[in-house]
Structures are given as structure tokens and as C-alpha cells.
Here is the input.
Amino acid sequence: MTLSTSILLAAAMFSVGVYGLLTRRHAVAILLSVELMANAANLSFVAFSHFRGGATGQLFALFALAITVAEVAVGLALVLLLYRTYGDTRTDAAKELRG
Amino acid sequence: MIAALLPVIVAAPAVAALILLAIPSRYAIATRVVSMAGATVSFAGSVLAAVHYDRHVGGLQMPFDLPLIPSLGVHLSLAIDGWGVSLVLLTGVIIFAAVLASFTVQRRDKEFFIYLLVLVSGVFGVFVCQDLLIFFLFYEIAVLPMYLLIGIWGSSNVVPEAGPFRFVWKIFDVGGREYAAMKLTVMLLLGSAAILVSIFVLYQGAGATTFNLGVLGAVPYARTTQIIVFPLLWMGFGSLGGVFPFHTWSPDGHAAAPTAVSMLHAGVLMKLGAFGVIRIGMMLLPVGAAYWAPTVGAVAVVNILYGAMCAMSQKDLKYIVAYSSVSHMGVVMLGAATLNATGWNGAIFQMFAHGVMTALLFSLVGLVYERAHTRIIAKMGGFGTIMPGVATFFTLAMLSSLGLPGTAGFAAELMVFLGAWHGSHAWWTIPAILGAFVTAIYVLRASRAIFWGPGPSEHFHDLYDARGVEWAAPIVLAVAIVVFGVWPRLLLDLIDPATIEYLRDFASAIVRQP
Amino acid sequence: MSLPVGALPLEAAPIPAFVALFAPAVAALVLAAAPALRRRGAPASWVTLTASLLATAAAVTLLVTQLREGGSHVWMASWLQINGAGVGDFGVRLDGVSATMLLVVCVVATCVQVFSLGYMHDEKPPAFGRYFAYHALFLFSMNLLVLAPDLLQLFAGWELVGATSYLLIGFYYQKPSAGQAALKAFWITKLADMGFLMALMVLYKTTGTFRWDAAVTAATATTVSGLLFFAVVGKSAQFPLHIWLPDAMEGPTPVSALLHAATMVAAGVFLIVRANPLFAHAPATRDVMLLVGSGTALFAACLALVQTDIKKVLAYSTCSQLGYMVAALGAGSVFGGFFHLATHAFFKALLFLAAGSVIHAVHSNELADMGGLRRRMPVTATTFIIGAMSLAGIPGLAGFFSKDLVLASVEGRYGWVPFGALMATAFLTAFYMGRVVFLAFFGEARGHAGHAHESGGSLLVPLLVLTVPSVALGWVAAPLAHLSGATYELHLVGVVPILAASLGLGGFALAWVVYGRGTLVVSALAPLERLVATRAVNRVYEVGYRRVLLVVADVLGWIDRYLIDGLMNFLGWSAVAGGRALRRVQTGNAQDYVFAVVLGAIALAAWGLLP
Here is the structure.
């Protein structure tokens, strides 16, 4: 396991996340994709910290995890609200912004 | 006391507007008293400034300076010269008359007076301001309340659908008061955008330390800069000054506006545009001005003749007066484009003369409209029998409009024509004089159609002449027309020293042209 | 000549001249500023009349002083200030010409105002007061013109008399025909005044002043005088701009007498007399004047032959006589033109006022409604006949002397064509005046004429006063010539005076044969009547106004409304339409926005990686 393989892994995770974000219609799946992208970033933090020395990256990863938890909470609340408003958790339902 | 005169003139209407905010709107009389007080203070102040201005010394006098944003070099810097005195006096006369003429406003009168007074503070500010950025600020203050004044208190007019652009009627209510207000605001703001860009170019070019007009005027901007920026200022200010083809907001706007607003707008606001072209455009960018002067003059001639011909074809009284403003503002711009003392004196004097006479015309049209509830000339006739006073004042204003000696219009037009004939493009004078002749045709035609002829039809039998306070505005304005028409030197002695000074700066800038 | 304010001590300033100028101005101001006074009628007439009498007294003083001392006095101040220097003179210039003209104007004006007291008596008080306010304004404007020290002030007076003429022609503003006539008069003269304005500009550009005695080149003199003459053609109703004058008879008859016969229309001639230094150096302009003047004289006299309205006859006669003056000035006889102006002012005012007296009695302008008035209105008839004889150039009367001077001046010019035209006019003048005299005052009474009776005192006194100069002015030609800096010799024996006198007498004799005895019917006039009925000259103007000017205005108005403004609306519309097109981008689907963000990120990355 080298730095480049870790980075490649993180990039792959991020890309998978982006792909999911763009293609999935279900709000929970979108939330999962976002999580995947966030964790890809965390993975890079940890990887750089491990291979380059210093603890800052790992601290940041911890910090980010904490924030992600809060974010997931907000995200799930949004999903819940989406369901209550439209009776569906697919994002196609919410199109108020259409011009 | 004199040192604080200019801030007092500028602030008095705004202060009155602030006081009005505190008065409950049900006190109609208090509203009018406060508004009148604000207007009177400014009017008296402007007369005092005219009397106090030392014409033998000349130059900028009664300076007032307050640093606002020292790091950018923005100062609230007020001072007045001969041109400023004349135009401040004009504004004083007209706001005084306009407030008097608005006493009959019924609906939401308190707000009406607030907007009117704020607007006038802006106008005063423009004429005495010596700082480019604050100049622009005052300019915007003067322009923006117009949107509300026309949109709320205006009247609508039906324009039949026709022409290649008739599909526009589907989305705009062409001729409506909201339409007029919106068109006016949008066109003037487009002009403002051009002005703002130019202001930043000028500020940067001068080293980004000051907006002072005197300092900026001495900066030798590069020839290409001048040639590019001057048209921006010309069209930007020109859109308010009614320069062809950016005049089309003016007939609709003036026709839709309530009486006092038309008086102020045609009487004073259009002058802001022309003043901006001369004071900012020509004085800060002399090389550009000299380069573009032939175009400015040619377009001004188009304004004169074309505006007069359009006025002749109108059926609606307010449109006639509005188009006559377009035509007369052409005279101002022609005077400006001559780049000589005769023409500039004439331009400034024409600003005054046209301001007073057009305000008089609009105030009388307002009186007729309030009674007859129509502005269509074909429906009128024989009103002279029942409103002889209005007819008399109307005739005076019309005669001034066609440049009869003894009225202010004559001295102004004469000087502009003399200046144009003296200038490098003498041929301009001929269409301009023809325009004056066409003016004689349409004004007298309109006057006859309204006031002459056998007594009015049954429908108009309950009309009556002006009464009480309604006389005040016409009398004030008519006196101004005659006094300055009989003895124009009352103003010219103030205007001329300023013209000489500006012209000297202008000529030396041309000589040391980069 | 250029004296700034105060260069002359005020005692030396001709105070009476200021009285003549400002007394009517004060009267006009008072009447304008005090509507209560004006609307009561009679007091207004007294205000105006007082001012006119003061002005007349001042004019008499001035003329006497001029006769005794002569010389030219100027007192003035600059009216404009341009580039630190005064431009345009405002004040009075007093010399023989202006003093003479001032007296003529003031005397005729006062007579007309006195006449109006009776003539306009039936008007409602406000209208009566308005009438006299206009009169005060007119007298001020006319005196402003007469006393002008330079062409700018002269122009100011010139325009102001035009405006008062407009107001007075339109005095009966309820009558549509009066309104039309007022506008026509103002427009035609205003059109001509553009020439005056151009002349001012040319003069100012070359000399920096508006003085007529400034030194100019021959070319400039020709240009300026030509432009000025164009203005004269309008104001003095010369062909082809004469068409407004007959219509101007819609105004009250005393107004026709004062403005449209005696003084205002003569302002054109006065201008040429004043600006003679310019005209003297412009032979080309003078040639045109000679031709236009003599042509108008003959043309208008022909038209006068067939008019049925007594005022129209006199109006065309005025055109014709103004043609005489213009021709004389064109021929270079300044005093000839000016002298004819003076005599014409008196006898034509007399004729108009006498006609007014007749109209007042029979309530009609038509000659067909008159007849036999000689017995019923002896004073009016006598004064009218004296005026007619003076106009026709019967020897011994004022008109004879001045007409003789005019005819003598054009003798031999242009192969005798102008001379022939003016001689023919002299005959026609006598004939049409004879026609009026015999139709109105002799023969059987027609229409209301049977019930007519002599007018009252205020109508007759002015007639009698005006009769004096109409008869006697010719005998003081020499001192008048001296005042104008010319010389005059009385020559009663010669080809010209004898020919002119016999033509005048012949014209009267023929008129007596045709209209007095009715033994001879002139069927030769029938084609002329048909020609007049076509109103050919008027048609040209009507086409120019209705078919050209108004149509062009309508086209331009349409263009402005629907093309220029349409373009502005189109710009507004395209902003809205553009917005409408762009709104499709906003799908409302959050993932589409994310997709855009990702694309943007990729684009940025690609941009960053590019070399």
C-alpha cells in the first residue's frame, strides 16, 4: 500500500460518489453518494498524513467525520421532510425551482 | 451664513421630506405647509445665492467641503459658479411653482410630496456639486423617485397597436403609466450605467486619488480615452437630456406624469442631462468633445426639427408639449456643440428659458386636464371664453416657446443660433431656424384649437378658470419668462464669466492636447 | 456711435423718446397685471389713451427739436453679454427719420384709439379692456421698432408687432375665420422673419454688431439686404407673401387701419429706410426690390378692382401702395419711399376709419349693402372721398406729391417697365377707389343702407383730424426731406406729374361712367373675377401646408411612435424574450445543477492542466 494506491483508491471512491450523486434518483442513495465522496476526502487526509508524517491530516479526518455525522443528520432530516411533503423520497418530486 | 447657503439649499427639501415622514398622512394642510416651507427655503436660498454671487470675481464661490470617504478621495464638496447660479435659480423657481401646483393632489399626497422633495434635493445637488462621484449620487437621487411618482400618480394613455413592432404590445401595456414609468427608468438607468463606467475610467486615469471636478478637469487624458469615453457620457447624460434617439421615454413619461412631475421633469431634470454633457463630458474630456462636436451638433439639429415635426402630428396636448421639450433641448445641445461663448451662453440660458416656459405649459395643461378630463385637442375648443386667465398664460408660454422677443425664449435661441452660425458648422443653423418656424406653426395651431373658436360644447359647460392658489404657479413662472426675456443680462452677467472661464480651460486643453 | 451706458449724461438723453417708448409699455404692463382694471373695460381704454397721448406729445416735442437742431442722438445699453463684451444695443436712436416715423405712428395710433372708443363700444367690458391692452402693447412694440438703435432691437419690435397683429386679428377669437386669418398672418410673416434672423446672424458674424451702419463688404451687404428684403416681403405684404393681408381684415376695422394699413405693414418699408447703408451697397437687392415692388403694385391693384368687400379693396390697395414704396426704395429714392409711407399712413388710416364708420352704420362689409350714403353720412362720405382722392393722386393732395416722387424715381429704369406698371397702377388705383366711392356713397341705398345714420363724435373727430395731413402733408415735403437728409424740390410741371394726375382723374372719370352713371358695364373684369376666385396663390400655400408639411409631420410622428420608439420597445421585448429562453435551463432538478457543477469543475481542471 503506497501513497499513490491510496490516492487512486480515494479518487475512485470520489468518482463513484459523483456518479451516484448524478445518476441516483432516490434521496437516500444520493446521501450515500455524498458520504462516499466525503470519505474519499477523509481517506486522502489520512493517507497523506500517514505517508508524509505529522498528525494534522488525521486530526482533520476526525474533525471531518464529526461534521459528516451532523451533515448526515441534516440530510436524513431533509429526506424525511421530502417524504412528508411529497409522499416520496425520489428527488424528481421536488421541482419547485424549475423556471 | 453664506458659507452654509449651498448645503441649506440642497438639504432643505430633503429635510422637509424627513419631517413629512413624521406627520400622519391625515393632516393634509400640515403636509402642504411643510412641503411649501422646504421649497420656499430653497427658492429663497437660490435667489440669495444669485444676489450674493460676486460676478466681478467669478469662479467657484461659497465653497463647502466635507470629506466622506477620505481614502478614496470622495468629498461632499459644494460650490457654485455662474452656470450653477442660473440653474439653481431655475430649480428654485420651478420647485416653488410645482409644490403650489400639487396642492390639488388627493391620493397619497404625503408620499407624493416626499418623493417630489427628495428628487429636488438631488437636482440642487447636481448643480452645485464639485465631486464627480457625489455628482452621480445626486443625479441618481434626482432620477429614481420619478419611477414612483409616475407609476403611482400618473395617468395612462392608449397607443394603438401598429408598426413592425406591434408584437410588443402583447407583453407591455404601451402607453400605460406603469409602462411609461418603467421605460423612463430603464432608459435613464442604462444611461447611468454608461456614466458610471466613464466615471471609473476618469477616476483611474487621474491616479485614483480624487473625484474633484476641478482636478479631473486639469488631467490630460489620452486622446483615444477621450474619444472613446466622451460618447458614453454624451449618450449617458443625453438619454436624460432627450438626445435623439434616446428621447422616446420623454413623450410617454411626460404625458403620463402628474402635473408637478411633468413640470419638474421637463423643466429641470432634462437640464441635468444637458448640464452633465457640458459640465462633465465637455469639460473633463475636451479633446473628445472637440472630436465629437460635429456629431453632437448634427444630432441636436435632428432633435430640433424632428421634435418639432413630431409635435405637430400629435393629437394629445401633453404629447405636444413633451415633443416641444425634445425640440427645445435640441437647441440646448446645439448651443453646447458650438464650443464658443455665444453658443454656450445660449445653451445655459435656453436651459433656464425652456425650463420656465415648459413648466408653465405643463402647469396650465394640468389645469385644463383637471377640468376637462381630456387631453385630446380635437375634443376641446372655445375654452378661451370660460378660462380667459389660463388662455392668457398659455399664449404667453406658447409665444416664448416660438421665441418671441421679450420672452426668455428669444434671447436663448438667438444666442444659440448666433453661436452655431459662428461655429465651424454654420449649416446647422438653417434647419435649426426652420425648426423654430415649425414651432410657430404647431404651438399656435394647438393654442387656437383649445382656446379659440365658438364657445365650448355642452359637455364642457361646467369648466371654470383657475382659482385661488392655482394662479400662483402660472404667475411666478410667467413673471420669470418676461423679466428674463426683457432683460436677459440679469442672468447673462452671471453666466458669461463662467462661460469665459470654462472656455479658456477648454481651449488650453485643446492646445496642449496629448 | 457706440456709446455705453452713461456715456451721455441723462439730461442729454432724449427723455421724450423714453416717454414715447415706455408710456405705452407701462400702460400695457398695468393692464396685464391688473385684470380687475382691464375687465372693467372703460378704465382700460383711458389708461391706454393717456399713454398714447403722452407718447404723441413726446413725439411732437422730438420732431420740433429735430427740426430746430437736427443731428442724431443715441442712448443705449447692451442687451446681451457674450465673452465679456456687450452685444446688441437696447435704447433709442433719435434722428430725422425716427422722429418723423414716431410722430406718424403716435398720431395714427391715437386717432385709431379714439375711434375705437366709439366703434368697439358694443363689446363686453372684458373684451373692450383686452382690446385696449393689445393697443398699448402694439404702440410700445411699434415705438420700440421705430426708435431702435440697431437691427436687433428693430427685430424685437418687428416680432412683437407681428405678435400683437396676431392677437388683434384674432380679437374675435370665437369666429373660426378670425382664428384662421390670425394664424395665417403670423405664420407667413414668421416665415419671412427667418430671413431677418439670418440677416442678423450674417451681420453679427462679419461685424460683431447688429448695426446697419457697420462697414461691410459689397457681398455681405448684398446677402444681408437680400435676407432683410425677404422679411420685408412678408411684413409689407409683397408678392408672393401678400396673401395674409386681405385675410387680416377679419380683425376689427380700427385695427386694420392702424396695423394693416398705416403702421405695422409699413414697418418693412421703414426697415429698408433705416438699413439704407446696407441697401445702398447692394444694387442686386435693389433691382429685385424694384421689380417686386412694381409688380406687386400692379398685381394688387388688379385684385382690388373686383373685390366686393370694402375692407378687402382697401387691403389690396395697401399691398399695392406698399409696392410703390418698395419700388421707390429699389430705385434708390429713399425719401420717395419714406414720404409715400408717411402720406399713405394718414390717408389709408383715414380711408379705413371712414370705412369703419360706414360698416358701423350699415353692419356689413359688402359694397352691395351700401349705396347713397353720401346724404345719410355726410362727414364720413366727405372724409372718405378726400382720402380716396389723396390715394388716387389728385393734384394738391398729399398722395399726389409722394406718388409723383415715387414715379419720378423709377423713370427710365429697366426699359420703363416698372414705370409703366406704376403708371398703370396709378390709373387702376383711381378707378377702384372711384368704384368704391360711387358704389358706397352715391346711387340708391341698398340693404340696411337706407337706415344708416351718421356716426357719433368719437368716430368723426379722428376722421377730421386725419383729413388734415391727408390733404396738406404734401406741402411740407421739403422740411421732411431735410429731416431725412434728402432734398426735395417741388415740380408741378413736367411729364410725370401731369401724366400721373391725368391718369388719376381719368380713373375717377371712368369709374363714374361705369359705376356712377351705370351707362357702361365693364365685362372685361369678368375673367379677372374668375381668376381671383381660383385663389391660385393661396392654393400653393394650402398645398404646402396641408399636403406637405402636415403629411410629413404625420409620417415623422408615425416613425417616432412606431419605429424609433418601437425599436426601444423591441429592445425591452428582447430582454424579456431572452429571459424567457434562458429560464429553460432551470429544470428544478437538483441533480442537473450538480451535473453543471461537476462539468464546471472538470472544465476548470482541464484548463489548469493545459500547458
Notes: Chain C touches chain B through 61 residues (CB under 8 Å). Chain C has 25 helices and two strands. The two ends of chain C are 86 Å apart (CA to CA). Residues 536-582 of chain C form the longest helix (47 residues).
